[in-house]
Design brief:
There is one protein chain. A six-stranded mixed β-sheet has the order 4-3-2-1-5-6, sandwiched between helices. It has a single domain, classed as 2-Layer Sandwich (Nucleotidyltransferase, domain 5). The chain has four helices and six strands; from the N terminus they run ββββαβαβαα. It has about 140 residues and is of the alpha/beta class.
Length: about 140
């Protein structure tokens, strides 16, 4: 297994219509947004997920965990955990859940700064959020 400071990482921002994706690696702490995966009621096309995993060959997969501000879980939290469990079960990848509170809010702010006008259905919000989740996780690793 690669050293902890040399990990290839994929991050997902789980949603019921789109699942944002981002890739990164811990050696240079770089990350980039990937095209979001379409989902039908929270279920992605698993072949698309498999292609992404084969292309990026991550050592670790992060899945954003949408907790409420009081740390309680919601229905979406349960579904995000299920998605993470399925990633592990289907593909044998190491999965870590990451607190993603406010990532979508921050992603919308960033999209607005990029000049986006507000129809977020067509914006890369989900993948911006996935990149922010990945960057937050990397920042926490350097703090530990």
């Amino acid at each position: 297994m690669p050293q902890p400071d040399h990990l290839a990482v994929l991050a997902f921002d789980y949603g019921t219509q789109n699942i944002g994706a981002a890739s990164g690696q811990t050696l240079t702490h770089s990350s980039s947004e990937l095209p979001a995966l379409k989902a039908r009621d929270g279920v992605p096309n698993w072949q698309d997920v498999e292609k992404m995993l084969q292309e990026w060959k991550p050592d670790l997969v992060l899945v954003g965990l949408p907790l409420n501000m009081d740390d309680s879980e919601s229905e979406l939290s349960t579904r995000a955990r299920k998605f993470g469990n399925r990633l592990h079960g289907r593909f044998g990848v190491r999965v870590e859940m990451v607190d993603e509170r406010l990532s979508t809010f921050a992603a919308k702010e960033e999209a607005a700064e990029r000049g986006h006008k507000g129809n977020y259905g067509q914006a890369p919000i989900d993948s911006i959020a996935a990149r922010l989740i990945l960057e937050s996780w990397m920042h926490q690793q350097t703090d530990n």
